[in-house]
Amino acid sequence: MPQLPDHLLAGYRNFMSGRYLAESGRYRSLARQGQAPETMIVACCDSRGAPETIFGAGPGELFVLRNIGNLVPPYEPDGEFDSTSAALEFAVQSLKVKNIVVMGHGRCGGIRAALDTTAAPLSPGDFIGKWMSLIAPAAETVSSSTFMTATERQTALERISIRYSLANLRTFPRVSILEGKGRLTLHGCWFDISAGELWVMNNDTGDFERPEMR
């Protein structure tokens, strides 16, 4: 009989005897009433940077979209299938979230692929290459800098890509309108996996700063 890998079933047993048992009332309420998160997070697929874990979120608190490189494409209503735009549409127009956070992270494989133009595609379709071409102009500029080390170039592009995604978010008419009315706020942040540090983008300057931890 086919079944899930043993470590997943063990994790599920721990979930049912631990977190679900402690929060079963909340889960039942969410099932009856539906979700109403105030924050959407656009994060990378990387298994090391789960937003729910980093922000200590409970069930129903975050609407999370994860893709390679935490990228948001520009508004293209006549484009082909686009799960990122569909999730954004649902979050903004149906859930009516109040915040959208684009969260990048250190040592991102997608960003590394964007910088390494000599690497062979992983498949004939080169899906990663096509997706990361969203930030190709920035990648070309950063990769041409001989004054930075490889690590510095990667960190720079990881943070620049967050600004790109925020700019692309503002090409969506509904996002732009709601932000202009003060009903939606856009944020950027970058998570250092190794040190566990969170750097938050200053919306006025674009700089990434460490928040005060009290």
Keywords summarizing the entry:
single chain, 214 residues, alpha/beta, six-stranded mixed sheet, 9 helices, 6 strands, 43% helix, 16% strand
- Shape label: globular
Oligomer: single chain
Structural class: alpha/beta
What's the overall average pLDDT, rounded?
96
Termini gap: 52 Å
Strand order of the largest sheet: 2-1-3-4-5-6
Low-pLDDT runs? none
Radius of gyration, whole Å: 19 Å
Q: How many DSSP H or I helices?
A: 9
The percent range for strand residues is: 15-25%
SSE arrangement, N to C: HHEHEHEHHHHHEEE
- Helix content, binned percent: 40-55%
Number of strands: 6
Largest β sheet strand count, sense and barrel closure: 6 strands, mixed
Secondary-structure map:
Elements: H1 6-17, H2 19-33, E1 39-44, H3 51-54, E2 62-67, H4 83-94, E3 99-105, H5 109-115, H6 127-132, H7 136-143, H8 150-169, H9 173-180, E4 185-192, E5 197-201, E6 208-209
Parallel strand pairs: 1-2, 1-3, 3-4
Antiparallel strand pairs: 4-5, 5-6
Helix pairs in contact: 1-2, 7-8
Structure explained in plain terms:
- 43% of the residues lie in helices and 16% in strands.
- It is of the alpha/beta class.
- The radius of gyration is 19 Å and the shape is globular.
- The model has no long low-confidence stretch (mean pLDDT 96).
